[in-house]
Specification:
By secondary structure, this protein is mostly helical. It has helices spanning 3-12, 16-19, 34-44, 50-81, 87-97, 106-115, 123-129, 133-143, 148-156, 161-169, 174-189, 205-213, 220-249. The radius of gyration is 22 Å and the shape is elongated. The two termini are 39 Å apart.
Length: 256
């Protein structure tokens, strides 16, 4: 599990003459930070400050993570604990949507975003990412474990659905919420903006690093340095919340 991470870090500090050795070595005899320096230099040539790309990525990541957590939590509660016409059909559609890759809907997304006039804005990245079938399925399954007797007791005491959701159900979903936050953070942090963003000042950091890395083998070291830079935030978030993920995967529910 740790070997790919180790190899990425080692490749990022290798000098160019060691990057293309055959057979490849899993260590470096002359580590250097030139790859990171060249990465920042290459980004600076775009005439947009490096901080701007970081700001764009953080804006998209924080917005998507927050909105996805709030909206999916409420939707999962409704689908798990509320009875209404079409509930079973919606649940089946969610399960079927798990089979589709995001590439399948790119053209339809572009047409809709273009008609809404959101091309070349961060909203083009944020709005489509709020809906996550995986996250919704996760929250719905987790909330389903809460006994209906708790919901009925709250209704008897006069609590409305909104209060039941945020004061009774969601506080008991900490493991599922942490897992949802990690999934949302990872997907939005690594999001490519090339399909909807064309102005340089609105591009995200993964897009810029990808643009640099595809220019040829001469920038293989820069590509690995960028991979390390992009790896750090999700790795830190995952490390801090890994116990919550394990608890979610083994979650057996609250007993009556």
């Amino acid at each position: 599990m740790f070997f790919p991470v180790y190899l990425t870090v080692v490749m990022s500090v290798k000098p160019p003459e060691e990057l293309f050795m055959f057979p490849p070595e899993i260590y470096t005899s002359r580590p250097t930070l030139n790859n990171f320096t060249e990465m920042f230099e290459a980004i600076r040539q775009n005439r947009v400050p490096f901080s701007r790309y970081v700001f764009n990525s953080l804006t998209v990541t924080v917005s998507v993570t927050f909105l996805q957590t709030v909206i999916i939590s409420m939707a999962g509660f409704v689908l798990a604990k509320c009875q209404f016409a079409g509930r079973n059909l919606i649940n089946r559609i969610i399960v079927i949507s798990l089979l589709y890759q995001s590439n399948v809907i790119y053209i339809m997304q572009y047409v809709i975003i273009n008609k809404l006039g959101l091309i070349d804005s961060l909203s083009a990245l944020i709005l489509p990412s709020i809906a996550s079938p995986v996250g919704l399925f996760l929250m719905k399954q987790s909330i389903s474990q809460i006994p209906d007797s708790i919901i009925d007791s709250a209704k008897t005491d006069g609590a409305g659905l909104f209060r039941i959701c945020w004061q009774i159900v969601i506080p008991n979903q900490k493991p599922a919420l942490m897992t949802l936050i990690i999934f949302a953070f990872q997907s939005s942090w690594n999001m490519q903006s090339g399909a909807f963003i064309f102005h340089e000042e609105y591009k995200t950091l993964p897009t810029v690093i990808n643009q640099i890395s595809v220019t040829g083998l001469a920038r293989a070291g820069i590509s690995m340095a960028g991979a390390v830079f992009m790896l750090l935030p999700p790795a830190i978030i995952f490390t801090l919340a890994q116990s919550q993920i394990i608890e979610t995967m083994t979650y057996s529910g609250i007993k009556n």
